[in-house]
Write a structure and sequence with these properties.
single chain, 178 residues, alpha+beta, Lipocalin, 10-stranded antiparallel β-sheet, 24% helix
C-alpha cells in the first residue's frame, strides 16, 4: 500500500514540477503551433487561383484584357503588351544610379491575413541631379475573387520635392473571366 502511495506521490510531484519547468510551455506552444499549422495549411489550400483571361473595366472604363498565370510562389500579369512577374511572399528591390539620376524600387506581394486576396505594395524613389528634382511614389493594390468576378483595387500616392501636397489616386477594377 505504501508503495502505491509513493508511486502516486512521485507521479504527482513529477507532474507538478514538469508543469512549472521551462519545457512545459514549449510543449504547449508546439501543440498550439501544430494546430495553427493545420489551420494555416487549410487556409493555404483555400487560397483563390486568379489564373485565366479576364476582361473588364477600371473606374467604369473598358480596359485591356488581363491574363494571369498563378503558381504557388509567383504570379504573372499580362495586359496591353506589358508582362510582369512577381514573387509571392518576397520583397524584391532594385536600384540604379548614374551621373544624371538615381532610383530605387521595392515590391512585395503577399497573401492577406485571411488568405483570400493578394496584396501588392510598391514604392519608387527617383532623383535627378541636374534639375534637382525628387519624387516618391507608393501604391497598394489588392486582388481578390468575389463570386465569379476578379476585383482589383488600388491606391496611389506620389509626392515631389515641391510644396505641393501628396497626390492621391484610386483605381477600382472589375473583371469577368472570358
Amino acid at each position: 500500500m505504501q508503495k502505491i502511495f509513493l508511486v502516486v506521490g512521485f507521479m504527482a510531484c513529477a507532474c507538478l514540477s514538469f508543469g512549472s519547468s521551462p519545457l512545459f510551455p514549449l510543449l504547449r506552444f508546439n501543440k498550439q503551433h501544430a494546430l495553427l499549422s493545420t489551420d494555416k495549411k487549410a487556409m493555404e489550400e483555400a487560397r483563390p487561383d486568379f489564373s485565366g483571361r479576364w476582361q473588364g473595366e477600371c473606374n467604369q472604363q473598358k480596359v485591356e484584357d488581363l491574363v494571369i498565370v498563378q503558381k504557388p510562389t509567383s504570379i504573372t500579369l499580362a495586359y496591353g503588351g506589358i508582362k510582369e512577374t512577381y514573387s509571392i511572399a518576397e520583397l524584391s528591390s532594385t536600384s540604379s544610379s548614374n551621373k544624371c539620376f538615381s532610383e530605387s524600387s521595392s515590391v512585395s506581394v503577399s497573401w492577406s491575413q485571411e488568405h483570400n486576396a493578394l496584396i501588392f505594395m510598391h514604392s519608387l524613389n527617383f532623383l535627378t541631379r541636374e534639375s534637382n528634382s525628387a519624387s516618391t511614389h507608393f501604391s497598394k493594390s489588392s486582388m481578390q475573387l468575389e463570386q465569379s468576378n476578379l476585383l482589383i483595387n488600388a491606391q496611389y500616392f506620389s509626392s515631389s520635392n515641391t510644396l505641393e501636397l501628396i497626390q492621391q489616386d484610386a483605381l477600382h477594377c472589375i473583371y469577368q473571366k472570358k
